[in-house]
Amino acid sequence: MKKTVVLAAGIAAACLLAGVAFAEPVGQLALTGVEPDTLRSETGGAVSVYGSGFITTTLVRLVGFNVLDTEVVNASLLQATVPPGVPDGTYDVQVSASGAFAGEGDVQTLSKALSIVSATPTPKPKKTKPGRPILTIRNFSVEPTRPVVGTEFVVTVYVYNTGSRAGENTVVTFPGGTFVPVGETGHLLWQLHINHTAVVTQRMRVPTGLSSGSYNLQVNLSANDWEGNHYEYPETIAVEVVGVGAGHPQLVIESARTEPAVLGPGDTFSLTLCLANRGSRTATQVVVGAASFDLAVPAGRSNVLAVDRIGIDQVVTTTLPLVLGEVTQAGRSSLEIALDYSDFQGGSYTDLQSVGLEVSTALADRPQLIIADYRATPDLLGGHSDGAPEPLAPGDTCTLTLEVANVGGGDAQRLTLTLGGEGGSGLAPFAPLESSNVKFVPGLAAGETVALTQRLVVDGGADPGAYSLPVALAFDDSRGTRHTDSQLISLLVRRRPHLKIGFYRPVEVATVGVPIELPVEVTNIGRTLINVSTLEVTSAQLEIEDGSIYLGPLDGGTSGSLEATGVAKFAPGEPEGGAAEVLVAVRYLDDFEQPQVVTETLTVEVEVPVEVAEVGEEEAQEQEEGFWDKVLRILRGLVGLGS
């Protein structure tokens, strides 16, 4: 009689599920295995069927016996109950996704997958370890801790095996009931060892209509031991719900507009929102505000506004005063608006919605300042041979000139320029002289340029290199909106060599045509090494031989020398001699690996021998006499006394 009741219940369940199979589409059905593969006829038991494509209407059938009571754990696991009294034999296991086994494409079969055996003469007992797996929920958490009706929450359970055997095919299911599971409700943990914990998370939804209070959430734990015995451990956990009675308010932003309609960076504007309550309860204690300050910040007041209440289907208009940030990208930008409200039943709600802002970054009516040119002029005499000024060196003073141009379409007012950035923290190794590092310009019209100067001194201990100097600009536009900008300029600091150049022994008076030694020496009187390449000697009045030599790096306090030979040249018409200039050039590589040169002019006295001077006077007299003889002969010829 008991067998008949069980069979009748199974057939009724199969018919009921077959009737609702049309409500859910059948997935791709596949079977991979059955555990255990042998059951006793006297006791029956539960079997696990593995595969894919399982849905809520899926049923398991023993071919030749009947449809089994089936529980869909998830899309890849079924649990079927084989009742006691099934005849001995090896059975094919069939699975139908729709619950109807008449079709072909909807049915999958595992051949000879399950054996049913009766009691036989008592075999030799197996030596097995006593005990079984015992599953319990050791701890759990709910996020948020007090979910509101109509919202979702996540429950996390810590499943612990306190038994004396490992749990095989351990399954955690959330069958639902008071709370509605979202997504798959079954979680297969496979094997859970003794004294081990597994963590399972499940997303649930609180249905509408619940009142405030604590409700039980059903959690079913099950596992097999290694002999195939199946164990069930139903558990419940308490979840506290914030209820709202029947229905709840629902606020939506039905329209939004800004004044002005098109916004520019830094503009002050008003955002008008039309809030409508499309729920079934009155919204109370409504608070509206910008959710973040990335795009816009409050203007002159708090970032939120409070509205007393909004009735069902009522529309309320409210305005937020805001300032647009320094937006660099034009187009439609999204501004998030946070809505917080309650109802008369004590329910609280939070919502995040977005509105669009039309942003323009065009410079047609806004100022835009740039540093168009700058130069640092050292307070030194002289410079390079090409006319360029001497480079900056540690300890030097200079005048820095900045040319600020307004390339925008609007006038800039109350311009302040700060060297070193905001606060001057980036000014080192330079320091201002005679005035502060902040300059003020009352106004700069569109298209105009203003030159600002600042005297600076370079720190005496500064290392050579290229220094980036930040320049902070702050100005107002025609609407009074303050704009800030930061730009960079670079100043080069080179180490200037300290060299002593001269003759390292006295040089005699040079005689025209007679070779003379020119003993030139260069000494590094500074403290740092100088990478000298060559030492060269040239002269316009002397013919120089052996006038160049490679020296190499010179440490502080060391020197290099050159023994050149010079021969004074005789210039007709200048037999009296005089001073000859000797140009000494020291070529080296500076701190930026650029070739540089230091020159020094030395003088050598030159005299003309007596013989050369006398010969020069006689030749001059002969030349003078020859000229007058020619004149006399011409006069004689004119008067007929001779040719």
Looking at the structure, what is the overall shape? elongated
Secondary-structure arrangement, i.e. CATH architecture of the largest domain: Sandwich
CATH topology of the largest domain: Immunoglobulin-like
The amount of beta strand, in percent, is: over 45%
Q: What's the main sheet like?
A: 8 strands, mixed
Low-pLDDT ranges? 1-26, 381-387
Radius of gyration: 51 Å
Q: What's the arrangement of strands in the largest beta sheet?
A: 1-3-6-5-4-7-8-2
Number of strands: 42
CATH superfamily of the largest domain: Immunoglobulins
Mean pLDDT: 83
Number of domains: 6
Span of the ends, CA to CA: 177 Å
Counting H and I runs of at least 4 residues, what is the number of helices?
2
List its traits:
42 strands, disordered N terminus, Immunoglobulin-like, mainly beta, 643 residues, 5-stranded mixed beta sheet, 8-stranded mixed beta sheet, 6 domains, 2 helices
